[in-house]
Specification:
Elements: H1 7-14, E1 27-28, H2 49-52, H3 62-76, H4 79-83, E2 88-92, H5 96-109, E3 117-121, H6 126-134, E4 138-142, H7 151-159, E5 164-170, H8 182-194, E6 198-202, H9 217-220, E7 229-234, H10 235-238, E8 247-251, H11 253-266, H12 272-282, H13 286-306, E9 320-324, H14 328-339, E10 341-342, E11 344-345, E12 363-367, H15 372-387
Parallel strand pairs: 1-10, 3-4, 3-5, 5-6, 6-7
Antiparallel strand pairs: 2-8, 7-8, 9-12, 11-12
Helix pairs in contact: 3-12, 5-6, 5-11, 13-15
Bound molecules: pyridoxal-5'-phosphate.
Pyridoxal-5'-phosphate (PLP) binds next to loops.
Length: about 400
C-alpha cells in the first residue's frame, strides 16, 4: 500500500515513531505561518455578527475591490491598467485553492493535441502539482539556476512534448526566496504567450522581502506581453493572517472572468466580515512593514547563528531557510528526535527537472517565523545539531 502523498502527511509519517525529546519544548519549523507579532487590530472586524448571517456578496464588497486596486497601484503602479479595464480583479479564498482552480481552468481550455502539460518550478508549492494532476495534466518541471534566468522555463515548454496549458511562476520563489527581475518576468510572459498557455504567477511572498522589493508581473504586464495571465496575491503572508483565507487574483479580463464565473458558482466567496477586515489590511502598509522588519530580524539571527554552516544562504525574500544537509529525511528525523525541531524535508516539495535533477533532495526547509526568543532557541539547537557528528536515525 502506498503511503501519504502530501508534504505534511509525509512529514508526520516520517517522525511518527519518534517521541519528541523529553524536557525540550518542540518547535514547529515546518510551516510557513508567521508568528512575528501581535495580530493586526483590523481583524477585530471579524466579530461583527451580522455579517456572518448573510451569504457573502459575490465578487466581494466595493470597499474590498477598491482596497485591492489601491494596493496594486501603490505597489506595482497598476492604477492605469485597472482604470482602463486592461486588468481585472477578483477575490479568492486565500491563494491555494485559487491556484488549483486557475490551473484546472487553463487545462480545460486545451483542445486536442494530447495530454496537456503544466510547466512549473521545482521545488514547488504542492498545489501546483496536485492541482495539475487533478485536472488531468502532467507536471513538467523547470529548475531556476541562475537568478533571473528564464532559459529553464523556455526549455521546459518543448520538453513537454504536447500542449502546454499553463506556465506557473512563483515570485519571490518558494522555498528559496529568489526574486525574479522584471526582464525575466517579461520573458516568461512571452514564453507562456508563445506556447498558447495561461501564465499563472504566484506572488504571495511579494511583501515578505528582506533584500530588495520584488517586482510584480503587473509592473511589466502592460509592456506588450499579449497572453492570458493571472497573478495571485494573499493576506496569508503579507499580513500574517492565513486563517482569514483571503486573497485575490488580477489578470487579463477574460481569464479573471473565467475564474470569477467558476468561483461564484462553485467556489468559496469571502464572508462580509472577512471582506471588511481584508479591505482594512490591504489599505494599510504599516503593519506589513513591521512584519517585514521582524522577518528581517529573524534572518539577522540566522546570519548570526548559522552563517558558518556549509551552504547557508540568507534568502532575499520569504520565510524559509533552504539548508543543504547530507540527507533531508535522516536530518528531519534526527532534528526531531534529538532537538525537538520539526523541519520539512526538501524532497517532499520537489520533483526531478528535465535533466533528472531533484533539487529538494538534500535540503531542509526551515521556517523563520517565530518570535525572537523562540527563534533564537530553535536556531541555536539547529546550529548545535549541525556541529555534532551526524548519527543517522
Ligand atoms: C508559494 C505559496 N503559494 C501559495 C500559498 C497559499 O497560501 P494561502 O492559500 O494561504 O494564500 C502558499 C502557502 O504556504 C505558498 O507558500
Amino acid at each position: 500500500m502506498s503511503g501519504p502523498t502530501g508534504a505534511f502527511a509525509r512529514l508526520r509519517q516520517l517522525v511518527r515513531d519518534l517521541p519528541a525529546p523529553p524536557g525540550l519544548e518542540p518547535i514547529q519549523l515546518q510551516l510557513g505561518e508567521a508568528r512575528l507579532g501581535t495580530p493586526p487590530p483590523e481583524l477585530a472586524q471579524l466579530g461583527a455578527a451580522e455579517g456572518w448571517t448573510r451569504y457573502p456578496q459575490l465578487g466581494g464588497s466595493a470597499e474590498l475591490r477598491a482596497a485591492y486596486s489601491g494596493w496594486l497601484d501603490r505597489r506595482f503602479g497598476a492604477g492605469p491598467a485597472l482604470a482602463s479595464g486592461r486588468v481585472a480583479i477578483e477575490p479568492t479564498p486565500g491563494s491555494k485553492q485559487a491556484l488549483a482552480v486557475a490551473i484546472a481552468l487553463a487545462v480545460a481550455r486545451v483542445r486536442g493535441g494530447g495530454e496537456p502539460a503544466v510547466v512549473m518550478p521545482t521545488p514547488f508549492y504542492p498545489a501546483y502539482r496536485v492541482g495539475a494532476a487533478a485536472a488531468g495534466a502532467r507536471a513538467v518541471h523547470y529548475r531556476l539556476t541562475g537568478e533571473g534566468d528564464a532559459a529553464a522555463v523556455a526549455a521546459a515548454v518543448p520538453a513537454a512534448g504536447g500542449p502546454v496549458a499553463a506556465v506557473v511562476v512563483c515570485n519571490p520563489g518558494s522555498p528559496r526566496g529568489e526574486i525574479l527581475p522584471p526582464e525575466t518576468l517579461r520573458q516568461v510572459g512571452r514564453i507562456a504567450a508563445a506556447a498558447g498557455a495561461v501564465l499563472v504567477v504566484d506572488e504571495c511572498y511579494t511583501d515578505s522581502y528582506t533584500a530588495r522589493r520584488p517586482p510584480g508581473y503587473l509592473s511589466v504586464a502592460d509592456q506588450a506581453v499579449p497572453g492570458p495571465f493571472l497573478v495571485l496575491h494573499s493576506l496569508s503572508k503579507r499580513s500574517a493572517a492565513p486563517g482569514l483565507r483571503s486573497g485575490f487574483l488580477a489578470g487579463d479580463p477574460a481569464s479573471v472572468a473565467g475564474y470569477a464565473d467558476y468561483n461564484r458558482e462553485c467556489g468559496v466567496s469571502s464572508p462580509q466580515p472577512v471582506c471588511a477586515a481584508a479591505a482594512a489590511l490591504w489599505s494599510d502598509d504599516g503593519h506589513v512593514a513591521r512584519l517585514r522588519a521582524a522577518l528581517g530580524r529573524n534572518w539577522d539571527l540566522a546570519d548570526e547563528l548559522l552563517a558558518g554552516l556549509p551552504g547557508y544562504r540568507r534568502a532575499d525574500a520569504g520565510f524559509f531557510l533552504w539548508l543543504p544537509v547530507p540527507d533531508d529525511e535522516v536530518w528531519a528525523r534526527r532534528l526531531w528526535r534529538d532537538h525537538g525541531l520539526l523541519a520539512m524535508p526538501g524532497r517532499y516539495l520537489s520533483a526531478p527537472d528535465q535533466d533528472g535533477v531533484d533539487p529538494g533532495i538534500g535540503h531542509l526547509r526551515i521556517a523563520l517565523v517565530h518570535d525572537p526568543d523562540r527563534m533564537r532557541e530553535a536556531l541555536t539547537r539547529l546550529r548545535h545539531a549541525a556541529q555534532v557528528e551526524e548519527v543517522p536515525a
